[in-house]
Protein: Putative restriction endonuclease domain-containing protein
Organism: Cryptosporangium arvum DSM 44712
Amino acid sequence: MSVAVELHPEPISEEEYLARPYTGQREELIDGVLVVSPGPSRPHQRISFRLATILDQRVTADLEVQEAVNVRLASGRLIVPDLAVLTSVGADDVVAPAAEVVMMAEIFSPSTKQIDRLLKPGLAAEARIPYFWLVDPDGPTVTVHNLDNGSYREVASASGEKLLTVTEPFQVEFRPAELLASRRG
């Protein structure tokens, strides 16, 4: 499977993007260009669910963890991170503005690995998202980045059974291997 870029004679507006019918694929708007990728694999979704559950148990009451939510990084830039930690607890709007995003996490997929590893962190840094996590299912490995002078700096990383300890924006400890376990124990 691969990522597709849908060509239009003019950039797609945010209104056009939000009005599109659901196709079962992940669609994102980057500078007026619609980027379409296949739906996530089962291991990807397992990691996303387990990580969301772990984070949800640790976030403070003023934060909310959501999977695959629309995030407006800037005008004409709406992305769908695998996970987002938001300050807008209980909000019911369709798009979360970057100012409400404390953390984003991307889980690598074969078709979007370079987008997840390079493009999205760059766009998130421009939007001043304070924390960005990258999850590589191989290992699995979780790498935590904090925004520092406009770019991300790695502050923690762990693979497999090694304990990952994070203190900001909230305290959380887990072993990345837990994210791919076939059953929770």
